Amino acid sequence: MVDPARPLRVVHPVSDPDALDAAEAEAIVQVARARGELPTLDPAVFDCYLGHLVHQVEPTSEADPVAILASLICAAGVYLGQGPHVRAGDDPHPLLVWPLIIGRTSAGRKGTSWSTARRLIAAADDEFTRTNIKSGLSSGEGLAQCFALPDNADPAGGERDLRLMVMESEWAGSWPRCAAKATRCQRSCGRRGKAATCPP
Length: 200
Description:
Elements: H1 22-37, H2 49-57, H3 65-80, E1 85-88, E2 91-94, H4 110-124, H5 126-132, E3 133-134, H6 140-145, E4 165-166, H7 171-189
Parallel strand pairs: 3-4
Antiparallel strand pairs: 1-2
Organism: Amycolatopsis arida
Protein name: DUF3987 domain-containing protein
């Protein structure tokens, strides 16, 4: 069964709607209009272990529960690696998603949703959180460096953990530029795992 679109989540309840300034009132109207254009939310999205976790932390977070769930699903896919997959024809597709959490600047609680998800991930595996989740990779070189072998490393030195979850709080400024540069860098490096100075 599909519920109607979720109501606008008010972080701080307003006791006197007439006291809202014009800008805040207009923002609420715009968000409600945008929410009305979104697909309806089927409560079944929370019928899983991660959804249960989200419901457990929801009362203590100002973040939208869907944003927390999206971050947890992304982290779970990276954590599980390439093994679990679904098949489309003959091609395996690992359980990877790339959520883009969108909200108003400084008031959309995007960072709050990530902080809540990160707390749960760290509780499950703190080492994974410290070593496999990165941010601040604003260039192709930064992304390539995550997979580079140290200069003194033996290339046949055994398995390396190549799982990487990149969380960037400002997508518009960094990732389109980083992705384009990473593609040029990958072509110039010639093989995975080799660090190089990439062309501009």
